[in-house]
Amino acid sequence: RHFHNKRRASGVQCTMDFVEKSIQKVNQLGAGGGGGTDSKYFQTTKKGEIHELREELANPKMEKKKEAVKKVIAAMTVGKDVSMLFTDVVNCIQTVNIELKKLVYLYLINYAKSQPDLAILAVNTFVKDTQDVNPLIRALAVRTMGCIRVDKIVEYLCEPLRKCLKDEDPYVRKTSAVCVAKLYDINGELVEDQGFLDMVYDLLGDSNPMVVSNAVAALAEISETSELGQKVFQINTSTLQKMLAALNECTEWGQVFILDSLALYCPSDGREAESIIERVTPRLQHANSAVVLSAVKVMIKYMDLITSQDTLKALYKKMAPPLVTLLSSEPEIQYVALRNINLIVQKRPTILAHEIKVFFSKYNDPIYVKMEKLEIMIKLASERNVDQVLMELKEYATEVDVEFVRRSVRAIGRCAIKLERAAERCINVLLELIQTKVNYVVQEAVIVIKDIFRKFPNRYESIIGTLCENLDTLDEPEAKGSMIWIIGEYAERIDNADELLESFLESFDDETASVQLQMLTATVKLFLKRPAETQKMVQDVLTLATQDSDNPDLRDRGYIYWRLLSTDPEAAKQVVLAEKPNINDDSFTLDPSVLDELITHLSTLASIYHKPPSTFITGRTRMVPTLGGGAHDDEYEESDANITSDMMDGGMGGAQAAPPAMPAPSAGGLADLLGLDDEIAAPAAGGGGV
Asked: pTM score, two decimals?
């Protein structure tokens, strides 16, 4: 019943939820007299079972009927079709025994959709039960009414629901509030015409906090699915105070509903924001992590309106301990907390600026927790704590988990790019790791050093010799590409640069496209810097790229370089040897507008995926059907099916058509430039087409 993840299984009441819990319910209902022997209901394999059950259901004795209904529920739970007993089971509904009534209602919820005409037989009982003297039976009737998703029955239930919304017992009122949200999914227009939305809105002023929280939950759910959107649930000064008053007294999930709704409210000014934060702050001490994260969400949202730095600092101090406490929970909760903290740190890094040690990985942390802690460590790294961070990352580089080691080595490079003053210390740590001669450590170190060279050109080239010593150990495409880039970029400082590139040229055809592209560019760079020594090499590489390759990207780049070298070598220098744009470590940083949206969705699935809900939830806003039209289940099911396919297909474009072939460059121009006697055959215009 928890609406916390902002999506209720596409609005369709999944009847299997009831089926999965049926075994537990049967056990609970029979625990009083059965002594825990209800497992017997699941062990029968009689051939004439249906006929016997029908006879038992017609037995005038209450205990016999109860036993028979339990057997029916057990058969239903294990997947047997007992819908043919619908009439017989419904006949048992006329009873004062609440245990039997619960069992019959459970059966009704499961089979009403497949037997809508017969389900109408139970309408009179629902209406009668909503007037029972026992509030538990009244609430049970209302709850079941909301779970039976049959449009034919809806119109008969309007009057009973109207009475229950004004019931004298708060338990009945709070159940009725949720029933309105369920009814809205079936027939929204009917709910609006009957004035149920206004009645639920009036419940926000109820004296019972649980009624208030359920009313908030119902209105929030309806506002997400309604075409009216936020107009359904608009918080004003009056309702705000009632919600804040109920916040201290309702259950933990009621608090979550209220806090999530407060996060959507926009205070008029900083003073009102401070006032609300003051009322919300005690929720940070709650034992339930969902309550804590919802409170944090409200506070961070409202902080944008507060201008006083002293007030903000005081709030930061209050928010840090609860967030740290979340990391002492089970690994699964830690992961959810860390994903949310990742967003919080990007928005307000000051909150946890002094708590970086709690994000150091423990030896027994699961790998998914370690990876998240690593990300947050990098975000919190500063010149004040970088030495601690580097020591920790160096320790991680000796772990047994290869993927974690790789990420740790990359983290050292990211710290260097982020903190200019610490770059030299990071380089020294990377050199120490290279000396370990561990293959994957060396390869990751080469990759990150390439990025450091990009960030700080002409500063740390003295270590190139050490990198070249480890050339033979490189066997991964990204590491090879990085090393080739370094050789090409600093060819004038490497005496044997041509020999080093020659070693890669031998296996050119076997390399991946990324390595081939780097090899092509590095060779052209080397030729522009040392034309006399590398004429044959550049000719060989251009021939391989344009004549022998079937990769359109490689061919196109080869054609461009060939034409540049053939027509205007100076232009080639300006293009190929141009100053590189500066790089920043923003690969794991979200766009500010996306971050602001995700902050409003803290403690939901969006905060774990780090994607706005619109990217992984489809068909959330439902068209309000005409009166009596209802909502068709196949529409919701189709929407559900699309969610998975959308997420799987995301980022996968269709097949790209190969670019049109370039005209053949002038063979004579390149021959003259290289000073070669032999005529070079220009590649055919359409050669190597895909």
From this structure: 0.74
